[in-house]
Amino acid sequence: MWLSLILLGIFTAAVNGQIDVVTRAALEGAQTAVKTAFGLIAIMAFWLGIVKIAEQAGLIRGLAFLVRPLVRVLFPSVPKDHPAVGAIVMNLSANVLGLGSAATPMGLIAMRELQKLNPYPDRASDAMCTFLALNTACLTLIPSTIIGIRAFYGSTDPTAVVGPTILATACGMTAAVLVDRFLRGVYRARGK
Amino acid sequence: MLEVVSALSKWAIPVFLVVVLLAGTIRGVRVFEAFVEGAEQGFGMAVKIIPYLVAMIVAINIFRASGAMDIFVGAIGPLLTCFGAPPEILPHALMRPLSGGAALGIATELIEEHGPDSFIGLLVSTAQGSSDTTFYVLTLYFGAVGIRKYRYAVASGLTADLTTLLASILVVTAIFK
Prior knowledge:
The complex is a heterodimer of chains A (about 190) and B (about 180). Chain A has helices at about 1-15, 20-55, 60-65, 70-75, 85-95, 100-115, 125-135, 145-150, 160-190. With about 190 residues, chain A is an all-alpha fold.
């Protein structure tokens, strides 16, 4: 898929007679990527520091203990009270509250913990797939960016979309969990 | 209700920090040493993501800038209109999982052009707020731990996006039309 995006792009640019945009788009893309990653260094360092304290204080395991029943249903392959669970809970809570700068580091910490349980280091584990399905379809209570834009363009009720947004994500999240469960079965049956 | 939630968002991190630091102190954790020890790994984790992120954003950028994206939008446009969606929101729907910035740009343009309280404005606001940039999240999270085989993660992520989009259309039509 990655290959076809690039090849189709270059081919289309050539047909449209604007092959010069390819090089520019590629270099600009690389720059965006590196800038994003460098921006992450700051928040990652901060949150990894805080989480280390929380971990040594036993808070992460405590959090994992609280959501035990839910974990057994959603992440059967993760041992109960594993630190990964604590990180997953913190990531999802930050997402729900719309705290992007905390959600990403918590998510990456969760992935690091899940990777410790993964028998094939270059292949996504079942738990990782479930976690990402939940994460990409995660509910946010207040979509603050879009509310700001609506207010800026003179909406009479900028927050009118909050209810519909929550309903729509709830559907998406349900679909994510169901499809994840289904595909897990399919991939296991094929031994992949 | 909304005020409560927004106050909750504002207070969540400061309160969390206080809880962690106090709990750490009470349990006898050497908080400063623990913080530095954890923070040390931040650089490595962020840098490890760079190659994956470069690979993905470069490919999406080329696909978009070359005009291939527009052709793709034109080709599957009629499919979406079957569900009662106005064709104007299609570029946004397709961009949403690929690039957060680009999708937000399209949403802003649509809101500016049609007005925030128009059907299209409400629909695109809902679609923007209810989903995430799936490919970015996958690249970032898998990249950070060096996973190269995503298995079915892309399929379930995109199914969720599609469901969210269709649900947005249904809900916004039911409430506002």
